Amino acid sequence: MRNPKLWIAIIALVVVGAAIKLLFNFSVDAVRASVAIAPEILFNVAGFDVTPTIITLVIVVVIIILLAVLSTRNMQVVPSGLQNVMETAIEQMINLFEGIAGPKWRDFFTIAASIFILVIVSNFVGLIPGAGSIGVIKVGEETHTRVENGQICFEHDGKCDPSGIFVLGDAPEFIETTSLFVKNEIARGAHPEEHAALVPFLRAPSSDINLPLALALVSVIMTQVYGMRAQGLKYWTRFFSFGRLLKGDIAFGLIDVFVGIVELISELGKIIAFTFRLFGNIFAGEVILLIMAFLFFILPIPFYGLEFFVAFIQAFVFAVLTVAFMRLATAEHGGESHEAHH
Amino acid sequence: MEKLGINLPWFLAQLAGFLIVLFILRQFAYRPILNMLETRKKKIQEALENADRVRAEAATQQQEFERKLDEARREAQAVAASAQQAAEKERQRIIAEAQEDAEKIRVAARGELDYERKQMVSELRQQVIDLSLLGAQRVIGGNLDERKSRQLVENFLNEADFGGTTEPGSVANRAGA
Predict the structure, then answer these.
(1) Which of A261, A295, B96, B160 has the CA that lies 20 to 30 A from B80?
(2) What DSSP string runs through B57-71?
(3) pLDDT for A164-216, tens place per residue?
Protein backbone atom coordinates (compact mmCIF):
# COMPACT_ATOMS: atom_id res chain seq x y z
CA MET A 1 0.00 0.00 0.00
CA ARG A 2 2.96 2.24 -0.60
CA ASN A 3 1.31 3.85 -3.61
CA PRO A 4 -2.40 4.37 -3.06
CA LYS A 5 -2.84 5.92 -6.53
CA LEU A 6 -1.77 2.67 -8.17
CA TRP A 7 -4.28 0.66 -6.17
CA ILE A 8 -7.06 3.10 -6.93
CA ALA A 9 -6.20 2.82 -10.62
CA ILE A 10 -6.24 -0.98 -10.51
CA ILE A 11 -9.57 -1.08 -8.68
CA ALA A 12 -11.03 1.47 -11.11
CA LEU A 13 -9.91 -0.65 -14.05
CA VAL A 14 -11.52 -3.75 -12.60
CA VAL A 15 -14.76 -1.86 -11.94
CA VAL A 16 -14.80 -0.37 -15.43
CA GLY A 17 -14.06 -3.78 -16.95
CA ALA A 18 -16.89 -5.41 -15.00
CA ALA A 19 -19.28 -2.62 -16.00
CA ILE A 20 -18.38 -3.02 -19.67
CA LYS A 21 -18.81 -6.76 -19.42
CA LEU A 22 -22.28 -6.31 -17.88
CA LEU A 23 -23.30 -3.61 -20.36
CA PHE A 24 -22.10 -5.15 -23.59
CA ASN A 25 -21.82 -8.78 -22.59
CA PHE A 26 -18.73 -9.09 -24.73
CA SER A 27 -17.10 -12.32 -25.54
CA VAL A 28 -13.56 -13.11 -24.58
CA ASP A 29 -13.50 -15.90 -27.12
CA ALA A 30 -11.25 -15.43 -30.06
CA VAL A 31 -12.08 -15.16 -33.67
CA ARG A 32 -9.24 -15.07 -36.13
CA ALA A 33 -6.28 -12.79 -36.13
CA SER A 34 -6.86 -9.94 -38.47
CA VAL A 35 -3.72 -9.53 -40.50
CA ALA A 36 -5.00 -7.08 -43.02
CA ILE A 37 -2.63 -4.74 -44.80
CA ALA A 38 -5.47 -2.43 -45.74
CA PRO A 39 -7.11 -0.98 -42.65
CA GLU A 40 -10.48 -2.43 -41.71
CA ILE A 41 -13.55 -0.26 -41.90
CA LEU A 42 -15.23 0.40 -38.58
CA PHE A 43 -18.19 2.46 -39.72
CA ASN A 44 -19.19 4.92 -42.34
CA VAL A 45 -19.79 8.61 -41.81
CA ALA A 46 -21.36 10.50 -44.74
CA GLY A 47 -19.66 8.35 -47.31
CA PHE A 48 -16.30 8.41 -45.53
CA ASP A 49 -15.08 5.04 -44.28
CA VAL A 50 -13.69 5.47 -40.81
CA THR A 51 -10.86 3.08 -40.01
CA PRO A 52 -9.23 2.28 -36.65
CA THR A 53 -6.07 4.02 -37.86
CA ILE A 54 -7.96 7.25 -38.47
CA ILE A 55 -9.58 7.09 -35.02
CA THR A 56 -6.15 6.53 -33.50
CA LEU A 57 -4.71 9.40 -35.52
CA VAL A 58 -7.42 11.69 -34.15
CA ILE A 59 -6.48 10.60 -30.62
CA VAL A 60 -2.81 11.17 -31.42
CA VAL A 61 -3.49 14.64 -32.79
CA VAL A 62 -5.49 15.48 -29.67
CA ILE A 63 -2.66 14.23 -27.45
CA ILE A 64 -0.10 16.30 -29.35
CA ILE A 65 -2.29 19.40 -29.26
CA LEU A 66 -2.78 18.98 -25.51
CA LEU A 67 0.96 18.45 -25.01
CA ALA A 68 1.87 21.49 -27.08
CA VAL A 69 -0.72 23.79 -25.55
CA LEU A 70 -0.34 22.67 -21.95
CA SER A 71 3.44 22.71 -22.02
CA THR A 72 3.66 26.26 -23.33
CA ARG A 73 0.53 27.74 -21.75
CA ASN A 74 2.43 29.33 -18.92
CA MET A 75 6.03 29.67 -20.03
CA GLN A 76 8.55 30.19 -17.27
CA VAL A 77 12.18 31.13 -17.62
CA VAL A 78 12.91 28.48 -15.03
CA PRO A 79 11.03 25.53 -16.53
CA SER A 80 9.21 22.83 -14.63
CA GLY A 81 6.90 19.92 -15.29
CA LEU A 82 5.53 19.53 -18.80
CA GLN A 83 7.33 22.60 -20.10
CA ASN A 84 10.60 21.07 -19.02
CA VAL A 85 9.82 17.79 -20.77
CA MET A 86 8.82 19.52 -24.00
CA GLU A 87 11.81 21.84 -23.91
CA THR A 88 14.17 18.95 -23.32
CA ALA A 89 12.65 17.01 -26.23
CA ILE A 90 12.91 19.98 -28.56
CA GLU A 91 16.40 20.81 -27.42
CA GLN A 92 17.48 17.24 -28.08
CA MET A 93 16.01 17.45 -31.57
CA ILE A 94 17.77 20.75 -32.16
CA ASN A 95 21.07 19.19 -31.14
CA LEU A 96 20.43 16.21 -33.39
CA PHE A 97 19.41 18.25 -36.42
CA GLU A 98 22.17 20.76 -35.86
CA GLY A 99 24.62 17.86 -35.87
CA ILE A 100 23.33 16.79 -39.28
CA ALA A 101 22.48 20.03 -41.03
CA GLY A 102 24.71 22.54 -39.26
CA PRO A 103 23.38 26.09 -39.00
CA LYS A 104 20.66 25.32 -41.59
CA TRP A 105 18.71 23.28 -39.05
CA ARG A 106 16.25 26.12 -38.49
CA ASP A 107 14.85 25.77 -41.99
CA PHE A 108 14.17 22.06 -41.65
CA PHE A 109 13.21 21.97 -38.00
CA THR A 110 9.45 22.46 -38.24
CA ILE A 111 8.86 19.63 -40.70
CA ALA A 112 11.39 17.15 -39.33
CA ALA A 113 10.43 17.69 -35.69
CA SER A 114 6.71 17.45 -36.50
CA ILE A 115 7.31 14.20 -38.36
CA PHE A 116 9.30 12.88 -35.42
CA ILE A 117 6.68 13.83 -32.83
CA LEU A 118 3.72 12.59 -34.88
CA VAL A 119 5.37 9.27 -35.71
CA ILE A 120 6.64 8.56 -32.21
CA VAL A 121 3.37 9.46 -30.51
CA SER A 122 1.28 7.45 -32.98
CA ASN A 123 3.63 4.48 -32.69
CA PHE A 124 3.40 4.59 -28.91
CA VAL A 125 -0.37 4.97 -28.93
CA GLY A 126 -0.51 1.96 -31.26
CA LEU A 127 1.35 0.00 -28.60
CA ILE A 128 -1.15 0.70 -25.84
CA PRO A 129 -2.50 -2.68 -24.71
CA GLY A 130 -5.91 -3.14 -26.27
CA ALA A 131 -5.01 -1.33 -29.45
CA GLY A 132 -5.41 -4.03 -32.09
CA SER A 133 -7.03 -6.48 -29.73
CA ILE A 134 -10.22 -4.80 -28.55
CA GLY A 135 -12.76 -4.22 -31.27
CA VAL A 136 -15.86 -5.47 -32.97
CA ILE A 137 -16.21 -8.70 -34.88
CA LYS A 138 -17.47 -8.15 -38.36
CA VAL A 139 -19.27 -11.04 -39.90
CA GLY A 140 -20.22 -11.06 -43.50
CA GLU A 141 -20.05 -12.84 -46.77
CA GLU A 142 -16.48 -11.89 -47.33
CA THR A 143 -15.51 -13.57 -44.08
CA HIS A 144 -17.35 -16.82 -44.86
CA THR A 145 -19.59 -16.56 -41.87
CA ARG A 146 -23.30 -16.64 -41.41
CA VAL A 147 -25.81 -16.60 -38.60
CA GLU A 148 -27.54 -19.79 -37.61
CA ASN A 149 -29.69 -20.31 -34.53
CA GLY A 150 -28.69 -16.93 -33.15
CA GLN A 151 -25.00 -17.71 -33.33
CA ILE A 152 -22.22 -16.74 -35.64
CA CYS A 153 -20.86 -19.81 -37.25
CA PHE A 154 -18.13 -20.31 -39.75
CA GLU A 155 -18.66 -22.36 -42.84
CA HIS A 156 -16.16 -25.13 -42.60
CA ASP A 157 -16.25 -28.10 -44.98
CA GLY A 158 -19.93 -27.37 -45.58
CA LYS A 159 -20.76 -27.60 -41.90
CA CYS A 160 -21.56 -24.68 -39.66
CA ASP A 161 -19.02 -24.32 -36.90
CA PRO A 162 -20.23 -22.15 -34.04
CA SER A 163 -17.44 -20.26 -32.36
CA GLY A 164 -19.32 -19.65 -29.16
CA ILE A 165 -19.38 -15.91 -29.69
CA PHE A 166 -22.26 -14.15 -28.04
CA VAL A 167 -24.48 -12.35 -30.50
CA LEU A 168 -25.94 -9.05 -29.44
CA GLY A 169 -28.68 -8.81 -31.99
CA ASP A 170 -29.74 -9.61 -35.49
CA ALA A 171 -28.38 -7.49 -38.23
CA PRO A 172 -29.00 -8.44 -41.81
CA GLU A 173 -25.44 -8.23 -43.10
CA PHE A 174 -23.21 -7.67 -40.14
CA ILE A 175 -23.59 -9.30 -36.80
CA GLU A 176 -21.46 -7.34 -34.39
CA THR A 177 -20.23 -8.34 -31.05
CA THR A 178 -17.47 -6.92 -28.94
CA SER A 179 -14.68 -9.28 -28.22
CA LEU A 180 -11.41 -9.44 -26.42
CA PHE A 181 -9.03 -11.26 -28.59
CA VAL A 182 -7.29 -13.98 -26.62
CA LYS A 183 -7.81 -17.50 -27.90
CA ASN A 184 -6.41 -19.23 -30.88
CA GLU A 185 -9.08 -20.20 -33.35
CA ILE A 186 -6.57 -21.96 -35.57
CA ALA A 187 -6.29 -24.66 -32.93
CA ARG A 188 -9.83 -25.67 -33.73
CA GLY A 189 -8.72 -26.74 -37.13
CA ALA A 190 -10.33 -23.95 -39.05
CA HIS A 191 -8.61 -21.91 -41.72
CA PRO A 192 -8.15 -18.36 -40.54
CA GLU A 193 -9.48 -16.99 -43.83
CA GLU A 194 -12.81 -18.59 -43.17
CA HIS A 195 -13.55 -16.69 -40.04
CA ALA A 196 -15.12 -13.51 -39.01
CA ALA A 197 -12.65 -10.71 -38.63
CA LEU A 198 -11.98 -8.68 -35.54
CA VAL A 199 -11.91 -5.00 -36.36
CA PRO A 200 -10.04 -3.23 -33.56
CA PHE A 201 -11.06 0.18 -32.32
CA LEU A 202 -7.47 1.37 -32.25
CA ARG A 203 -4.54 0.57 -34.49
CA ALA A 204 -1.18 2.26 -34.92
CA PRO A 205 -1.67 4.95 -37.57
CA SER A 206 1.66 4.06 -39.16
CA SER A 207 0.34 0.56 -39.88
CA ASP A 208 -2.05 2.21 -42.34
CA ILE A 209 0.10 2.91 -45.38
CA ASN A 210 -1.60 6.24 -46.01
CA LEU A 211 0.16 7.97 -43.11
CA PRO A 212 3.71 6.91 -44.05
CA LEU A 213 2.90 7.82 -47.64
CA ALA A 214 1.64 11.26 -46.65
CA LEU A 215 4.73 11.89 -44.52
CA ALA A 216 7.06 10.61 -47.25
CA LEU A 217 5.45 12.87 -49.84
CA VAL A 218 5.68 15.87 -47.53
CA SER A 219 9.31 15.08 -46.79
CA VAL A 220 10.38 14.57 -50.41
CA ILE A 221 8.34 17.44 -51.86
CA MET A 222 9.59 19.85 -49.21
CA THR A 223 13.12 18.66 -49.95
CA GLN A 224 12.65 19.79 -53.56
CA VAL A 225 11.17 23.10 -52.34
CA TYR A 226 14.12 23.77 -50.05
CA GLY A 227 16.54 22.72 -52.76
CA MET A 228 15.02 25.19 -55.18
CA ARG A 229 14.86 27.90 -52.55
CA ALA A 230 18.57 27.44 -51.85
CA GLN A 231 19.84 27.08 -55.42
CA GLY A 232 17.09 28.47 -57.64
CA LEU A 233 16.43 26.87 -60.97
CA LYS A 234 19.95 25.49 -60.95
CA TYR A 235 18.62 22.85 -58.53
CA TRP A 236 16.83 21.10 -61.35
CA THR A 237 20.04 20.52 -63.26
CA ARG A 238 20.52 17.76 -60.76
CA PHE A 239 17.84 15.79 -62.61
CA PHE A 240 17.82 17.40 -66.05
CA SER A 241 21.28 18.36 -67.13
CA PHE A 242 21.41 18.76 -70.88
CA GLY A 243 24.03 21.51 -70.80
CA ARG A 244 26.98 19.51 -72.05
CA LEU A 245 24.86 17.53 -74.50
CA LEU A 246 23.62 20.74 -76.15
CA LYS A 247 27.16 22.07 -76.32
CA GLY A 248 28.02 19.09 -78.46
CA ASP A 249 29.89 17.04 -75.90
CA ILE A 250 28.02 13.86 -76.75
CA ALA A 251 29.86 11.41 -74.48
CA PHE A 252 29.81 13.40 -71.25
CA GLY A 253 26.43 14.87 -72.15
CA LEU A 254 24.89 11.42 -72.30
CA ILE A 255 26.50 10.53 -68.97
CA ASP A 256 24.97 13.68 -67.46
CA VAL A 257 21.55 12.79 -68.81
CA PHE A 258 21.89 9.27 -67.47
CA VAL A 259 23.00 10.52 -64.05
CA GLY A 260 20.00 12.85 -64.04
CA ILE A 261 17.67 9.93 -64.73
CA VAL A 262 19.28 7.93 -61.92
CA GLU A 263 18.85 10.89 -59.58
CA LEU A 264 15.20 11.18 -60.55
CA ILE A 265 14.62 7.50 -59.90
CA SER A 266 16.41 7.69 -56.58
CA GLU A 267 14.22 10.65 -55.61
CA LEU A 268 11.12 8.61 -56.38
CA GLY A 269 12.73 5.70 -54.59
CA LYS A 270 13.00 7.88 -51.50
CA ILE A 271 9.23 8.16 -51.37
CA ILE A 272 8.84 4.40 -51.53
CA ALA A 273 11.69 3.81 -49.08
CA PHE A 274 10.30 6.30 -46.56
CA THR A 275 6.80 4.86 -46.89
CA PHE A 276 7.61 1.19 -46.61
CA ARG A 277 10.32 1.57 -44.00
CA LEU A 278 7.87 3.07 -41.54
CA PHE A 279 4.82 1.10 -42.61
CA GLY A 280 6.68 -2.20 -42.80
CA ASN A 281 8.32 -1.88 -39.41
CA ILE A 282 5.17 -0.90 -37.56
CA PHE A 283 2.89 -3.31 -39.38
CA ALA A 284 5.34 -6.16 -38.89
CA GLY A 285 5.58 -5.24 -35.24
CA GLU A 286 1.83 -5.58 -34.84
CA VAL A 287 1.86 -8.94 -36.59
CA ILE A 288 4.75 -10.18 -34.46
CA LEU A 289 2.97 -9.23 -31.25
CA LEU A 290 -0.17 -10.99 -32.51
CA ILE A 291 1.64 -14.17 -33.47
CA MET A 292 3.59 -14.29 -30.22
CA ALA A 293 0.35 -13.94 -28.30
CA PHE A 294 -0.92 -17.00 -30.13
CA LEU A 295 2.22 -19.01 -29.46
CA PHE A 296 2.42 -18.47 -25.73
CA PHE A 297 0.69 -15.91 -23.61
CA ILE A 298 3.84 -14.47 -22.01
CA LEU A 299 5.91 -14.46 -25.18
CA PRO A 300 4.87 -10.99 -26.43
CA ILE A 301 6.55 -9.29 -23.47
CA PRO A 302 10.13 -9.19 -24.84
CA PHE A 303 8.77 -8.31 -28.27
CA TYR A 304 6.76 -5.56 -26.67
CA GLY A 305 10.02 -4.00 -25.51
CA LEU A 306 11.46 -4.46 -28.97
CA GLU A 307 8.46 -2.74 -30.51
CA PHE A 308 8.92 0.22 -28.21
CA PHE A 309 12.46 0.48 -29.46
CA VAL A 310 11.32 0.15 -33.08
CA ALA A 311 8.64 2.78 -32.50
CA PHE A 312 11.32 5.24 -31.41
CA ILE A 313 13.88 4.24 -34.01
CA GLN A 314 11.44 4.60 -36.90
CA ALA A 315 10.45 8.10 -35.82
CA PHE A 316 14.12 8.97 -35.36
CA VAL A 317 15.15 7.56 -38.75
CA PHE A 318 12.32 9.28 -40.58
CA ALA A 319 13.19 12.67 -39.09
CA VAL A 320 16.95 12.27 -39.45
CA LEU A 321 16.74 11.12 -43.07
CA THR A 322 14.43 14.02 -43.86
CA VAL A 323 16.95 16.48 -42.44
CA ALA A 324 19.83 14.74 -44.17
CA PHE A 325 18.12 14.77 -47.58
CA MET A 326 17.12 18.40 -47.15
CA ARG A 327 20.67 19.29 -46.30
CA LEU A 328 21.95 17.46 -49.37
CA ALA A 329 19.40 19.22 -51.55
CA THR A 330 20.34 22.66 -50.27
CA ALA A 331 24.07 22.05 -50.47
CA GLU A 332 25.87 23.17 -53.60
CA HIS A 333 26.63 20.18 -55.73
CA GLY A 334 28.86 20.02 -58.74
CA GLY A 335 26.63 17.70 -60.71
CA GLU A 336 27.28 14.73 -58.51
CA SER A 337 25.77 14.03 -55.14
CA HIS A 338 26.10 11.01 -52.97
CA GLU A 339 23.13 9.89 -51.04
CA ALA A 340 22.72 7.15 -48.56
CA HIS A 341 19.57 5.15 -48.59
CA HIS A 342 18.18 3.23 -45.68
CA MET B 1 -2.90 0.09 -54.47
CA GLU B 2 -6.25 -1.35 -53.48
CA LYS B 3 -4.64 -4.21 -51.62
CA LEU B 4 -2.26 -1.88 -49.81
CA GLY B 5 -5.19 0.20 -48.70
CA ILE B 6 -4.04 3.37 -50.39
CA ASN B 7 -7.07 5.48 -51.12
CA LEU B 8 -7.49 9.19 -51.51
CA PRO B 9 -9.91 10.00 -48.64
CA TRP B 10 -7.82 8.06 -46.15
CA PHE B 11 -4.62 9.58 -47.50
CA LEU B 12 -6.09 13.07 -47.22
CA ALA B 13 -7.32 12.35 -43.70
CA GLN B 14 -3.82 11.27 -42.60
CA LEU B 15 -2.22 14.21 -44.38
CA ALA B 16 -4.68 16.57 -42.68
CA GLY B 17 -3.74 15.00 -39.35
CA PHE B 18 -0.07 15.66 -40.02
CA LEU B 19 -0.67 19.23 -41.17
CA ILE B 20 -2.74 19.98 -38.05
CA VAL B 21 0.08 18.60 -35.91
CA LEU B 22 2.62 20.63 -37.87
CA PHE B 23 0.68 23.85 -37.50
CA ILE B 24 -0.17 23.35 -33.83
CA LEU B 25 3.39 22.41 -32.93
CA ARG B 26 4.84 25.34 -34.83
CA GLN B 27 2.43 27.75 -33.20
CA PHE B 28 2.34 26.39 -29.66
CA ALA B 29 5.57 24.48 -29.23
CA TYR B 30 8.44 25.42 -31.53
CA ARG B 31 8.05 29.17 -31.57
CA PRO B 32 7.55 29.75 -27.83
CA ILE B 33 10.10 27.14 -26.87
CA LEU B 34 12.76 28.34 -29.32
CA ASN B 35 12.15 31.89 -28.10
CA MET B 36 12.36 30.69 -24.53
CA LEU B 37 15.60 28.83 -25.21
CA GLU B 38 16.99 31.97 -26.81
CA THR B 39 15.96 34.22 -23.92
CA ARG B 40 17.25 31.71 -21.42
CA LYS B 41 20.54 31.52 -23.25
CA LYS B 42 20.77 35.30 -23.16
CA LYS B 43 19.84 35.39 -19.49
CA ILE B 44 22.38 32.78 -18.57
CA GLN B 45 25.03 34.62 -20.55
CA GLU B 46 24.10 37.83 -18.77
CA ALA B 47 24.11 36.10 -15.44
CA LEU B 48 27.52 34.61 -16.13
CA GLU B 49 28.88 37.97 -17.21
CA ASN B 50 27.38 39.53 -14.09
CA ALA B 51 28.92 36.85 -11.98
CA ASP B 52 32.29 37.46 -13.60
CA ARG B 53 31.99 41.16 -12.99
CA VAL B 54 30.91 40.67 -9.40
CA ARG B 55 33.73 38.25 -8.88
CA ALA B 56 36.25 40.73 -10.27
CA GLU B 57 34.76 43.45 -8.09
CA ALA B 58 34.94 41.21 -5.09
CA ALA B 59 38.55 40.44 -5.89
CA THR B 60 39.48 44.10 -6.09
CA GLN B 61 37.57 44.78 -2.91
CA GLN B 62 39.32 41.92 -1.25
CA GLN B 63 42.65 43.39 -2.31
CA GLU B 64 41.56 46.77 -1.02
CA PHE B 65 40.53 45.25 2.27
CA GLU B 66 43.79 43.43 2.57
CA ARG B 67 45.72 46.54 1.75
CA LYS B 68 43.79 48.50 4.37
CA LEU B 69 44.16 45.74 6.87
CA ASP B 70 47.89 45.68 6.23
CA GLU B 71 48.06 49.41 6.66
CA ALA B 72 46.12 49.23 9.90
CA ARG B 73 48.33 46.46 11.12
CA ARG B 74 51.43 48.41 10.28
CA GLU B 75 50.02 51.51 12.00
CA ALA B 76 49.15 49.51 15.06
CA GLN B 77 52.62 48.08 15.08
CA ALA B 78 54.12 51.56 14.75
CA VAL B 79 51.93 52.85 17.57
CA ALA B 80 52.84 49.93 19.76
CA ALA B 81 56.54 50.37 18.98
CA SER B 82 56.45 54.09 19.74
CA ALA B 83 54.54 53.41 22.93
CA GLN B 84 57.15 50.90 23.93
CA GLN B 85 59.91 53.37 23.15
CA ALA B 86 58.22 56.03 25.20
CA ALA B 87 57.72 53.64 28.04
CA GLU B 88 61.37 52.61 27.85
CA LYS B 89 62.44 56.24 27.88
CA GLU B 90 60.21 56.93 30.82
CA ARG B 91 61.60 53.94 32.58
CA GLN B 92 65.15 55.13 31.93
CA ARG B 93 64.22 58.58 33.10
CA ILE B 94 62.65 57.27 36.29
CA ILE B 95 65.61 55.06 37.01
CA ALA B 96 68.05 57.88 36.36
CA GLU B 97 66.07 60.20 38.59
CA ALA B 98 65.96 57.62 41.30
CA GLN B 99 69.67 57.04 41.02
CA GLU B 100 70.28 60.76 41.16
CA ASP B 101 68.12 61.09 44.25
CA ALA B 102 69.88 58.22 45.86
CA GLU B 103 73.21 59.79 45.04
CA LYS B 104 72.10 63.12 46.50
CA ILE B 105 70.88 61.43 49.65
CA ARG B 106 74.11 59.54 49.96
CA VAL B 107 76.21 62.68 49.45
CA ALA B 108 74.11 64.55 52.00
CA ALA B 109 74.45 61.71 54.45
CA ARG B 110 78.17 61.56 53.92
CA GLY B 111 78.49 65.36 54.38
CA GLU B 112 76.63 65.18 57.68
CA LEU B 113 78.73 62.28 58.80
CA ASP B 114 81.89 64.21 57.93
CA TYR B 115 80.73 67.21 59.82
CA GLU B 116 79.91 65.15 62.89
CA ARG B 117 83.24 63.40 62.72
CA LYS B 118 85.06 66.69 62.39
CA GLN B 119 83.12 67.97 65.37
CA MET B 120 83.99 64.85 67.26
CA VAL B 121 87.66 65.07 66.28
CA SER B 122 87.85 68.72 67.31
CA GLU B 123 86.12 67.91 70.57
CA LEU B 124 88.43 64.98 71.10
CA ARG B 125 91.38 67.25 70.40
CA GLN B 126 90.22 69.76 72.96
CA GLN B 127 89.84 67.02 75.49
CA VAL B 128 93.19 65.51 74.63
CA ILE B 129 94.78 68.98 75.07
CA ASP B 130 92.94 69.53 78.33
CA LEU B 131 93.88 66.11 79.61
CA SER B 132 97.45 66.35 78.56
CA LEU B 133 97.75 69.83 80.19
CA LEU B 134 96.13 68.51 83.32
CA GLY B 135 98.45 65.55 83.34
CA ALA B 136 101.50 67.76 82.77
CA GLN B 137 100.47 70.13 85.64
CA ARG B 138 100.20 67.19 87.96
CA VAL B 139 103.54 65.86 86.91
CA ILE B 140 105.27 69.17 87.21
CA GLY B 141 103.18 70.07 90.17
CA GLY B 142 102.92 73.68 89.38
CA ASN B 143 101.27 76.10 87.24
CA LEU B 144 101.86 76.11 83.66
CA ASP B 145 101.46 78.97 81.36
CA GLU B 146 98.09 78.16 80.24
CA ARG B 147 98.32 79.88 76.88
CA LYS B 148 101.82 78.78 76.01
CA SER B 149 101.25 75.13 76.89
CA ARG B 150 98.07 74.93 74.94
CA GLN B 151 99.89 76.38 71.94
CA LEU B 152 102.63 73.82 72.41
CA VAL B 153 100.26 70.85 72.45
CA GLU B 154 98.42 72.16 69.49
CA ASN B 155 101.62 72.48 67.58
CA PHE B 156 102.57 68.96 68.53
CA LEU B 157 99.30 67.60 67.41
CA ASN B 158 99.58 69.49 64.17
CA GLU B 159 103.06 68.14 63.61
CA ALA B 160 101.84 64.66 64.29
CA ASP B 161 99.35 65.34 61.55
CA PHE B 162 96.55 64.60 63.91
CA GLY B 163 94.37 67.57 63.05
CA GLY B 164 90.94 68.37 61.71
CA THR B 165 92.39 68.86 58.27
CA THR B 166 93.38 65.23 57.84
CA GLU B 167 91.29 62.56 56.14
CA PRO B 168 88.78 60.80 58.38
CA GLY B 169 90.07 57.37 57.32
CA SER B 170 93.65 58.25 58.10
CA VAL B 171 92.62 59.69 61.44
CA ALA B 172 90.71 56.52 62.22
CA ASN B 173 93.65 54.46 61.11
CA ARG B 174 96.07 56.35 63.22
CA ALA B 175 93.72 56.42 66.13
CA GLY B 176 93.32 52.68 65.76
CA ALA B 177 97.03 52.24 65.42
Answers:
(1) B96
(2) HHHHHHHHHHHHHHH
(3) 333 333 333 333 443 433 333 333 333 444 445 667 788 889 988 999 999 99
Annotate B103-127 with b (16+ C-beta within 10 A) or e (fewer).
eeeeeeeeeeeeeeeeeebeeebee
Nearest to A215 among B7, B18, B24 (CB): B18
Q: Which three-class secondary structure state does DSSP give residue A138? A: strand
Phi, then psi, of A151 in degrees rounded to 5 = -130, 150
Q: How far is CA A217 from the centre of its chain?
A: 15
pLDDT digits (tens), chain A, 342 positions = 578 889 999 999 899 888 877 776 555 554 555 566 777 777 777 778 888 889 999 999 999 999 999 888 888 877 788 888 888 899 999 999 999 888 888 889 999 999 999 999 999 998 887 777 777 666 554 444 555 554 555 555 555 555 433 333 333 333 344 343 333 333 333 344 444 566 778 888 998 899 999 999 999 999 999 999 888 888 888 888 887 888 877 888 888 888 899 999 999 999 999 999 999 999 999 888 877 877 777 888 899 899 999 999 999 999 999 999 999 888 865 444 444 444
Integer Cα distance of A223 and A326 in angstroms: 5
- CA–CA gap between residue A138 and residue A177 (Å, rounded): 8
Tell me how far apart the alpha carbons of residues B174 and B171 are, in angstroms, rounded to a whole number: 5
- Contacts A209 to B, Cβ<8 Å: 4-6
Partners of A160 in the β-ladder: A155
Does A210 sit within 8 Å of B17, measured CB to CB?
Answer: no
Whether A38 and B15 lie within 8 Å, measured CB to CB: no
Q: How many CA atoms lie within 13 A of A19 on its CB side?
A: 6
Contacts of B17 in chain A (CB under 8 A): 57-58, 60-61, 118, 205, 211
One DSSP character per residue, A39-101 reads PPP-EEETTEEE-HHHHHHHHHHHHHHHHHHHHHTT--SS--HHHHHHHHHHHHHHHHHHHHH
Q: Beta-carbon neighbour count of residue A70 at 10 Å? A: 14
Where on the phi/psi map is residue B176: left (φ > 0), alpha (ψ -120 to 50), or beta?
alpha
pTM: 0.67
Which residues on chain A are in Cβ contact (under 8 Å) with B41? none
* ipTM field: 0.76
For residue B54, give how far its alpha carbon lies from the nearest alpha carbon of chain A (Å). Answer: 22
